[in-house]
Amino acid sequence: MTHKIRVSCSKSNLKTIRDFVNSVLGEHEIPEKEMNLIIVAIDEVCSNLIIHSHSRNSADELELKITSESEILIFEIIDKGEIFNITDYTVPTMDKVIKNKKNGGIGLILVKMIMDRIQIEKSEGLNVCRLYKSLAR
User: Fold this and answer.
1) What is the pLDDT of residues 51-95, one digit of tens each?
2) pLDDT digit string, tens, across residues 17-60
3) How far is CA 23 from CA 6, 36, 37, 66, 94, in A?
4) What DSSP string describes 10-58?
5) Does the predicted model carry a pTM greater than 0.90?
6) In the chain, what are the domains?
């Protein structure tokens, strides 16, 4: 089964995205802690796209599809913005982040820790960030 939502690239829509993900995850037997981590990961990717790729331009849109296949959830975030390939992002150590006193970057560390697999592709003018999470216990 696939669920979809399309929103404008306004930060005010991040709550709408979180509520949508929470609603879809509620259809599965997922522990609350795990649900919250997944919501954080999706929120981080969508937030980065809205802020950095689309400069909060509410004329732009992104779409989130959540597909359940057997014991795997697949999250597809689709947009036409500037692509950032999270799979090429080298996760710095926390010591390095603290030492550099850099704001930002921690969210991407969390996304890579929370999700089981990440794919980025560009097809027909669209960017697709695909995040996989296994539900197998």
Assistant:
1) 988 989 999 999 999 999 888 999 999 999 876 656 665 655 656
2) 999 999 999 999 899 999 999 999 999 999 999 998 898 999 99
3) 15, 12, 14, 11, 32
4) -GGGHHHHHHHHHHHHTTS---HHHHHHHHHHHHHHHHHIIIIISTT-T
5) no
6) 2-134 (3.30.565.10)
